[in-house]
Amino acid sequence: MDLGLKGKVVVVTGSAGIKGSIGETIVQRLADEGAIPVIVDRNVRGSGYADELQSKGVDSIFIQTDLSDYKQVEAAAKVIEEKYGRVDALINNVGVNDGAGLDASMDDFMYSLKLNMVSFFAMTKFCLPMIKKVKGNILNIGSKVALTGQGGTSGYAASKGGVLGLTREWAVDLIKDGIRSNAIIIAESWTPAYDNWIKTLEDGEEKLKSIVKKIPLENRMTTPVEIADQCLFAISEKSSHTTGQFITVDGGYVHLDRSLLTE
Q1: Of 111, 156, 194, 253, which one is the catalytic site residue?
Q2: Which residues lie closer than 8 Å to 162 by C-beta, 6 or more apart?
Q3: 52 and 144 inside one domain
Q4: Residue 79 lies in a domain
Q5: CB atoms within 10 A of CB 230
Q6: What is the CATH number of the domain that holds 59?
Q7: Is 29 in the same domain as 135?
Q8: Are both 212 and 110 inside the same structural domain?
Q9: Domain annotation covers residue 102
């Protein structure tokens, strides 16, 4: 399906993760659709990704940015304005489940909020004039932790809860401008980071099997490509009358009847 994203400037934060991470996969799928991916991340790995895309004839740039620092976010938005002058879609994707729980320091808790939620506000605020110019849209990447809790990660849970609140607030704020605001909620996705976490556990393989058994649809994890494809559909004109929505891509893990898990 042609999603009509060719030539669209799409900003993706937190998109210089390891190959196969959600942000990096979104960027690759955007390139496949002929869009212009703008990679915003603190990791210099993003420079290599942009160079790789450019070598294939894809218009893409990398802007190295510490997303926890709103002044750097503002500077990144100025680079985008100078280069492209518009933002057709903003995908706020950065997120680190950092374990800042009740025993964390106040500094660690505040940093978690800055990275996982305040960065969403800052990037949206500073890109908004460019989004308004073309009636673009905003897509926030959320987490099931906002709905279910997880334990030991107060900063991340609070941030992702706030992200959902901001999603609906912006949908209301921007109705008059014809700008849509939605969120994707992710649960268990097989990313390089997830793989690395499993490998740190003494009973990693058993833990993985236990989790997978609890995912109702096909008893498997969601792939980053499935998440990326849902993101592309959500920012495209194929979703032109969808706003203020939380789209859960998780194989039914969060919302379906627990009786489905009975063996």
Answers
A1: 156
A2: 113, 117
A3: yes
A4: yes
A5: 19
A6: 3.40.50.720
A7: yes
A8: no
A9: yes
Does 211 share its domain with 236? no
Contact in structure between 198 and 166 (CB atoms under 8 Å): no
Decide if 70 contacts 113 (C-beta within 8 A).
no
d(CA 136, CA 131): 5
> What's the residue count for the chain?
263
- Count helices and strands in the chain by DSSP H and E runs: 10, 7
Are the C-beta atoms of 164 and 146 separated by less than 8 Å?
yes
Q: How far apart are CA 34 and CA 6, in angstroms?
A: 4
Tokens 């989004």 map to which residue?
Answer: 131
Same domain membership, residue 210 and residue 235: no
Single-letter amino acid, residue 149? G
- CB neighbours (10 Å) of residue 11? 29
Does residue 194 have an active-site annotation? no
H or E stretch including 27? helix 22-32
**Residue 258 in domain:** no
Tokens at residue 247, please?
Answer: 């789209």
Full-model pTM: 0.95
Does residue 36 lie in a domain region?
yes
pLDDT (tens place) for every residue of the chain, 263 residues total? 689 999 999 999 999 999 999 999 999 999 999 999 999 999 999 999 999 999 999 999 999 999 999 999 999 999 999 999 999 999 999 999 898 999 999 999 999 999 999 999 999 999 999 999 999 999 999 999 999 999 999 999 999 999 999 999 999 999 999 999 999 999 999 888 888 878 888 888 888 888 899 999 999 999 999 999 999 999 999 999 999 999 999 999 999 988 887 66
